[in-house]
Design goal:
About 50% of the residues lie in helices and about 20% in strands. With about 1000 residues, it is α+β, with helices and mostly antiparallel strands. Strands 5-4-8-7-6 form a 5-stranded antiparallel beta sheet, with helices on both faces. It has a 5-stranded antiparallel beta sheet with strand order 10-9-13-12-11. A hairpin with a 2-residue loop joins strand 1 and strand 2. It is elongated, with a radius of gyration of 61 Å. The protein starts with a strand and ends with a helix.
Length: about 1000
């Protein structure tokens, strides 16, 4: 290998003469390599020179001493050395090395054994050992160098001191200078020859330089790569950890048993937790925050497919509220082959709600369009692509007859078609965004009608289209034409119209008709030249200005509106106005028609209140039904407990109290149903003072702390024929009204006493019958009422309270209840002096018997009874009672189950059916069982009102019926009576 430098680039030339650039060296190493190459190239002539000197001296010495063998040996070695040096670049290094070592070894042997020249032998031996070590390299070479050097040193010292003997005295030769000159020259030549033939030194140095650099570079590169990989791994881990931690989407991992392994903060927050640690502490597994059915379906799908994408399901928030999520989950294996699941979830609750709202909005606007009183159409390529029912009705077609079949030109009056065609073209091309104009159309039956159309451009299935509305104004046109044709006829119609007409120009009334004067209370001369805003209520003037402005600018969609007006006498009325533009006196003016809709709005408000009360009644009926089921079980088991305890047992007293309270609750429920459904009330002798005392605690809760409640009750028993729950209703309504009349507190007094009504009372009040009455008075110190309000106090839906704070039915209800009890009610009130209500109920002489809930004298039986009741507590109670009295009981949970049980059991004597049940109601089950066996006897029970029962097809007096709550003795007596009845 020969090195040389060209333009700061280091090249090597191999034995074939190819040039190779040497890479991996720095500048210092390259300079050293070039220096060594130049040095070794210079050694070639030096080696030839010293070899020639040694050869010349050796020839001389050999001829002088007659050493002809030595002469030939030295000449041969010199010639071989020269040949090797000349062809060193073309011969293998190992060949040249072995040849040179061989020649030197011959010289060593010849020097020691034949000539006894110790100096040549030692130097040549040292050359063999040193360069063999260099060529071999590593540990073996070092060992050869050390051993050879010591061996040569040992021999030299041994020959020098005489310890070793040879045939020729070595000392003589050591003293001959020519011998040393020859030996040194040969030594130099052989050293140079070995260096140049083997390239040992040059190669070894450069190789060492290159390999050390390459090794260091490789090691450095490997270290740098390792650091880079570690850094990249750390960056990657930090990046994905950051993504995992900061991701807005929830991420989780779970094992094959469904237990959570890891979740990110977003996943924890989605479930209502502040951190993943808190989530994993409270939530054990996936199923705990998903319904069982959803989890089962989701798991089956995941196990089958191995991956779930875009799966929508409901999960539980920490508050147990349901949230919608979009899940993407896949099954993976870890390095140990264990299965686990990882995935992401995204909260789509808002999206689901938005979708639901969108569906509702779409349905609402679809209904708005389909049921609109204005025709709606969509035209594309001059053909109708959509029309609503009103549009088809205007043209006397059906919708199917128009869609994709009728061209626009077919329905346009021929003279108006150029204008319509031009407008359509301009809207499609973008010259006009929207337009409004009137045209004539031709219906299916060839009638010509005037219409008003509003239209604009839109996109339909990716192509331009025209969408618009069509309003049939034929009648309006006829009216306008009639007005133009006959002023007299117009004036007659206007003046005698039940609708108010006016013309306004420059904000001043120019003309009004007689009806307008009647509505406003002004005379014609008073109102003409008056600013129209003077009649508008101050709170509605801004709204009126907006409508007038839009109407003046051609927005006819705003031509109709309602506003409040002030009559001349100060009364506020509600006006429905229709405005349009017309030319009056040569300039633009507003033409308005006015209708007084005050009464209609009042009736509308009353209707809404009635609907609210109807809804309350429906709700009350449903609550009472469920409450009656509860009371049935409560009263029934209470009576069973009462029957099983001795009269002296203290538990008997507890049972009596439970039953008493339960019956009062049942009465209150019946009252609620009676009020909500206006069912007949149940009148029986009651003691009025006892009712007042029983409700006093509840009445105190109806009033505020700044109101003092006092009761002054007569010490005499005041017995009346009444429904106690209805009396409670009277007290509740009157106390509530009194509380609202005392917003800053006051005094509320309830009094009772016995009075006699005479003819003077009848003359003063204009009603009543003489006799003994019980007087119930409710007095307050509130704001009171004036005479005008007092006259309407008992009118339905009349209220002095703000909107949303009263229905106006409280006092009307009180009045109705009093009349149902054949009583009378009066009211005294003055502003700021309070109000007093006086209720007169006829007094009676009767003894009130305390109800005793006993099961004595009740007879049982051995018959088989089928009970069909969907309420489990009621069904078990009835079963317990009947079994206790010897009956055999078959249970059914609904109508279908009742029919099936009747077919599967023989000898059923009586069927007890709840009137309202799932699957089959009582009447349906009754009809089916009757078709099987017409002699079977039935008893219907229900907690609903009578009208609900009648709706189910159970007619009065058609079957035996028992109202809930059921009393054991009442139930047993009725059952026994039905079974013992002779057909």
């Amino acid at each position: 290998m020969i090195l040389f430098k060209n333009n700061s680039i280091l090249y090597s030339k191999n034995s074939r003469g190819d040039l190779n650039e040497i890479t991996g060296f720095d500048d210092t190493q390259k300079e050293l390599s070039i220096f060594l190459t130049q040095l070794f190239d210079t050694l070639f002539p030096v080696g030839i020179f010293f070899g020639g000197i040694a050869l010349t001296a050796s020839i001389y010495r050999s001829i002088h001493y007659g050493w002809y063998f030595t002469l030939f040996l030295n000449v041969g070695m010199y010639l071989v050395s020269v040949v090797i040096l000349i062809f060193r670049r073309y011969l293998p290094s190992i060949f040249m090395f072995l040849v040179m070592i061989g020649l030197i070894s011959i010289e060593v042997i010849h020097s020691f054994l034949y000539r006894g020249v110790a100096s040549a032998g030692m130097m040549n031996l040292a050359i063999v050992c040193i360069f063999t070590g260099i060529f071999i390299g590593k540990k073996a070479g070092i060992f050869a160098v050390v051993v050879g050097a010591f061996f040569a040193l040992f021999c030299g010292i041994g020959f020098s001191v005489g310890a070793l003997k040879m045939s020729i005295d070595i000392n003589d030769h050591l003293l001959i200078s020519l011998t040393w000159f020859i030996d040194i020259s040969l030594f130099i030549m052989y050293v140079i020859c070995l260096i140049l033939t083997v390239n040992g030194m040059q190669r070894q140095i450069i190789k060492s330089l290159y390999e050390s650099k390459e090794t260091a570079s490789h090691l450095k590169t490997e270290i740098e790569m390792r650091k880079q990989i570690e850094c990249e791994l750390r960056d990657s881990e930090e990046k994905y950890r950051s993504i995992f931690t900061n991701a807005a989407m929830g991420i989780f991992q779970s094992n094959s048993e469904g237990q959570y392994l890891n979740v990110n903060p977003a996943y924890a927050k989605l479930h209502g937790f502040d951190s993943p640690e808190e989530f994993l502490t409270h939530i054990a597994d996936v199923e705990s925050c998903i319904s069982h059915e959803d989890y089962r379906q989701f798991s089956q799908f995941l196990d089958t497919e191995g991956i779930v994408e875009g799966y929508e399901l409901q999960k539980y928030h920490r508050t147990r509220d349901k949230i919608w999520v979009l899940a993407n989950v896949r099954r993976v294996l870890d390095k140990n082959g264990q299965t686990f699941y990882e995935g992401t979830v995204q909260n789509i609750t808002d999206r689901k709600r938005a979708e639901e709202a969108l569906r509702e909005s779409e349905g609402k606007f679809r209904d708005l369009v389909e049921k609109s009183l204005v025709g709606v159409y969509l035209v594309q390529d001059d053909i109708f692509k959509y029309v609503n029912l009103k549009f088809a009705e205007i043209l006397s077609y059906t919708v199917d007859e128009i869609l994709d079949k009728v061209m626009v030109q077919q329905v346009i009056f021929p003279e108006d078609w150029p204008m319509v065609d031009e407008n359509i073209r301009k809207r499609i091309s973008g010259e006009l965004e929207s337009c409004h104009y009137e045209i004539r159309i031709v219906t299916k039956n060839k009638q010509v009608r005037n219409v008003e159309t509003y239209s604009s451009v839109t996109k339909y299935k990716g192509k331009p289209a025209v969408i618009g509305t069509l309003l049939d104004i034929t009648e309006r046109k006829h009216i306008e034409q009639a007005l133009l044709e006959s002023e007299a006829k117009y004036r007659t119609v206007v003046e005698n119209s039940l609708i108010g007409f006016c013309i306004v120009r420059n904000d001043i009334f120019q003309f009004v008709n007689q009806r307008f004067c009647e509505i406003t209370g002004y005379g014609y001369d008073e109102i003409v030249t008056t600013n129209y805003m003077d009649l508008v209520h101050p709170d509605d003037r801004i709204k009126m200005l907006e409508h007038i402005h839009k109407c003046l600018h051609g927005d006819k969609s705003e031509s109709e509106h309602n506003f409040r007006a002030i009559r001349k006498d100060g009364e506020v009325i509600i006006i429905k106005a229709f405005c349009s533009l017309l030319i009056y006196g040569g300039s633009m003016a507003l033409f308005g028609t006015f209708m007084d809709v005050t009464q209609e709005k009042t009736l509308e408000s009353q209707l809404r209140q009635a609907q609210k009360m109807e809804a309350v009644g429906t709700l009350a009926g449903g609550i009472a039904h469920d409450f009656n089921n509860i009371l049935t079980a409560l009263i029934g088991y209470g009576m069973l407990l009462q029957a099983r305890t001795e009269p002296t047992d203290r538990s008997r007293l507890y049972a009596d109290q439970i039953l008493s309270a339960s019956h009062k609750c049942a009465n209150l429920t019946q009252s609620l149903l009676a009020f909500s459904r206006k069912s007949p009330i149940s009148l029986k002798p009651v003691e009025l003072n006892a009712i007042i005392r029983g409700t006093e605690k509840l009445l105190r809760r109806l009033i505020t702390e700044d109101i003092t409640l006092e009761t002054h009750l007569s010490e005499r028993d005041m017995i009346v024929l009444a429904d106690s729950s209805q009396i409670d209703q009277i007290l509740f309504n009157l106390i509530t009204n009194a509380r609202d009349a005392m917003p800053r507190g006051g005094k509320l007094t309830i009094r009772s006493k016995q009075v006699s009504l005479d003819n003077n009372f009848i003359l003063d009040h204009g009603f009543g019958e003489a006799g003994c009455y019980v007087l119930l008075s409710v007095e307050d110190t509130g704001t009171g009422m004036d005479a005008k309000t007092l006259e309407k106090s008992f009118d339905p839906f009349f209220t002095t309270k703000d909107m949303g704070k009263g229905t106006g039915l409280g006092l009307a209800t009180v009045y109705g209840i009093v009349k149902q009890h054949n009583g009378y009610i009066t009211v005294d009130s003055e502003p700021a002096k309070g109000t007093s209500f006086h209720i007169y109920l006829p007094a009676i002489k009767a003894t009130i018997k305390e109800e005793c809930f006993s099961t004595a004298d009740i007879h049982g039986g051995r018959e088989t009874i089928l009970i069909a009741e969907d309420n489990e507590e009621v069904r078990h109670f009835i079963k317990e009672i009947l079994i206790q009295y010897g009956y055999t009981v078959v249970e059914a949970v609904d109508g279908e189950d009742a029919v099936a049980k009747f077919q599967s059991h023989q000898g059923i004597d009586l069927v007890i059916l709840d009137a309202v049940m799932p699957k089959l109601n009582g009447k349906d089950a009754y009809d089916i069982i009757q078709s099987f066996q017409s002699t079977t006897r039935f008893l219907f029970i229900s907690g609903y009102m009578r009208n609900i029962i009648l709706d189910k097809g159970i007619r009065e007096n058609e079957c035996d019926f028992l109202k809930k709550p059921l009393l054991p003795n009442q139930l047993l007596k009725m059952i026994r009576g039905i079974l013992d009845r002779k057909e």
